Amino acid sequence: MVTVMDYNVKEKSQWCPGCGNFAIVGALKGALAELQIPQHQAVIVSGIGCSSKLPHYVNTYGFESLHGRGLPVASGIKLANNRLTVIDVGGDGDGYGIGSGHFLHIMRRNYDLTYIVHDNQIYGLTTGQASPTSQLGMKTKTTPYGVVETPFNPISTAINGGATFVARAFAGDITHMKDLFKQAVAHRGFALVDVFQPCVTFNKLNTYDFFTKRVYKLEAEGHDPADRMKALEKAYEQAASNYERLPIGVFFREERPTYEDTLPQIKENALVEHSLKELDISAAYDD
After folding, report:
1. What is the number of domains present in the chain?
2. Do the domain assignments include residue 276?
3. Residue 110 to residue 163: CA distance in whole angstroms
4. What does the pLDDT average to over 108-129?
């Protein structure tokens, strides 16, 4: 039996007291334990940022990559050993800014991996600059007169871009978030879970109180995640309501072949289980 304790580490978390990242790492450990995924069969990848320290705080395999480059590393790990459970974690700046190109193309290919985005609407590690998801009018170090750019919409982008599981959680509801993580990891295909994650130090607008008053669960209102058009309608509700109604839960889910399903080279055995002769690599060394 795998327990939450098995995923604990001795390292002390370096996040600010009260940061939403603490709830995220706790929910992820709980999800992995309830899914009974052994530590040696899980890999957590990250980019750079406050959120990307998470692999240091979970006792599984981990890889901290470059800023915005977590997804290509995660996809490479999945192709090398498609038997592994691969989870990429990052922030809104990491994934929706510099990493947006990778985000789009990995979704359309439908790799079987989970992407958890700590969406705090700010660049926290670099001390409070506007991010792609910062709210219109929000004043930050780089936008002293308020954000003038339309915020990036990760939910609608994921639905249109080819993700086969699209959800959003709130770090202030750890039980609900853990359930969404479980569903995402168990799903075969690319799963996005965008998390409203309050930054208590640099974002004084999108606080725990702000979200608690506005979030509601999609499942409580009878939303059907198989309906793509209804999912898109819900994805735009945040902007349409001027941030007064913020849906969380599963927006969209569908089943279709994963990228790995299309590769005959790994149909029977993982790539790491092949011999050099099977891969025709040894022929290059015959001479």
Report:
1. 1
2. no
3. 6
4. 96
What's the CATH code of the domain at 139?
3.40.50.970
Show Cβ contacts of residue 272 under 8 Å, excluding neighbours closer than 6 positions: 80, 81
Give me the half-sphere count of Cα atoms (radius 13 Å) on the Cβ side of residue 9.
Answer: 17
pLDDT confidence of residue 278: 60
Residue 11 lies in a domain: yes
Record the tokens describing residue 185, joined without a space. Answer: 């990891």
Can you give the pLDDT at residue 276? 74
Report the mean per-residue pLDDT for the chain: 94
Residues 6+ apart with CB under 8 A from 52: 46, 64, 70, 89, 90, 91, 94
**Cβ-based neighbours of 152, under 8 Å, separated by 6 or more:** 92, 96, 100, 132, 133
Give ∠ CA 102-108-112 in degrees, rounded to 5.
85
For residue 111, what pLDDT is reported? 97
Q: For residue 280, give the amino acid letter.
A: D
Q: How far apart are CA 57 and CA 74, in angstroms?
A: 18
Query: For residues 176 and 217, is the Cβ–Cβ distance under 8 A?
Result: yes
- CA 124/CA 241 separation, integer angstroms: 26
Structure token digits, residue 84: 């592994």
**Neighbouring C-alpha atoms within 13 Å toward the C-beta of 63:** 18
- Give the DSSP letter string of 3-59: -GGGG--SSPP-SPTT-THHHHHHHHHHHHHHTT--GGGEEEEE-SSSGGGGGGGSS
- Checking if the pLDDT of 286 tops 60, the result is no
- Judged against a pLDDT cut of 90, whether residue 52 lies above it is answered with yes
pTM of the full structure: 0.94
Q: 123 is in which domain, residue-wise?
A: 4-260
Residue 279 confidence (pLDDT): 57
Residue 263, pLDDT > 70, answer yes
